TrEMBL record:
UniProt keyword terms in alphabetical order: Ethylene biosynthesis, Iron, Metal-binding, Oxidoreductase
Pfam families: 2OG-FeII_Oxy (PF03171), DIOX_N (PF14226)
Organism whose genome encodes this protein: Acetobacter aceti
Protein name, as recorded: 2-oxoglutarate-dependent ethylene/succinate-forming enzyme
GO biological process: ethylene biosynthetic process
Molecular-function GO terms, alphabetical: 2-oxoglutarate oxygenase/decarboxylase (ethylene-forming) activity; metal ion binding
PANTHER family according to UniProt: 2-OXOGLUTARATE (2OG) AND FE(II)-DEPENDENT OXYGENASE SUPERFAMILY PROTEIN-RELATED (PTHR47990)
Cofactor(s) the protein needs: Fe(2+)
Amino acid sequence: MAVVQTGNGVRITGDEGLDVQRTAFTEIPLIDLAGMMSPDEMDRRRTGAEVRKACTEVGFFYVRHHGVSPAVLARCYEESKAFFALPEAEKCRIHIRNSPNHRGYGPLLEENTNPDSQGDLHEAFDLAGDIPANDPDVLAGKALYGPNLWPAQPEGFKPAVLACYKSLVALGHTLFRAFALALELEEDYFLPLIHKPCAHMRILRYPPQEGVVNEKQIGIGAHSDYECFTILNQNGDSALQVLNAAGVWVEAPPIPDTFVINVGDMMARWTNDLFCSTLHRVINRSGKERYSIPLFFGPDYDTVISPLSSCQDEAHPPLYPPVRAGEYILSRFDETYDYRQSQPEKV
Ligand SMILES: O=C(O)CCC(=O)C(=O)O
Ligand SMILES: [Fe+2]
């Protein structure tokens, strides 16, 4: 039994070993998002109902027919490999600590997603919407908004990464419609709240872990995500593990032409824990490096997240006080990143 501290409270994991129980993949449902593109409202509602079932029972699901071009993803991975292959000193010219907006390069072991661990064994490039420094929200100190930090090379990196970001944000809009239907709300309920969304993308590179793996230093320690939901593309071998309700780590391997979607803590709060933000972790024992691209999708910075009235009744009183979306995310970054703990004037 291990205890994991998350922003929404303490969670218990079942076992302390690193092995996964190989459970049939029907455990993590696969949803065909073509239903959300249908002009027939019944098709869209049916897809919403599948999302509801997945979010209440599992907190994770795969999607296919998501509308993201494989060529856009392939180019993003190719350019990212070239970026991560640069000398460390070159990558550190855009170290994330140089950005007041949480953008740029994060070296190995400078994040610690599970406070009980000793650093995550991955390196990362972080970006979000490119918002100019003179934008009123940036000037107002809403630190999730601001300009990205780009490396001088490889030349093709910036356009490839931005094309991928744009496609994943479009998928995020489709998913927010599906989440609204899943919650039996108007389909466009969330759309006025995502004009300037806190949509944060990362490109992650995990070196292989061979031999005896230190349980306190894995690819990414057990955690739940912070935002409303995560859109994850995986490249390479299976390394992602998801904790099921019985406390068993279940493998979530890459399935060709799909994304993994998972509920984050902000959506758990918004739904009064009707939707579960499930613990997960990464251990790359494939013997090869592994890349993945998560995009964490949340609403506009000032959106107040308090349990939806449709998710409350006498038996389910509100579990969480209201929080401002952007402030909640920043408080979670503070717990995770070395550079935010050593900054005297973090915002
Ligand atoms: O790389 C992965 O498969 C998952 C990454 C993840 O859980 C995260 O970045 O929050
Ligand atoms: Fe995660």
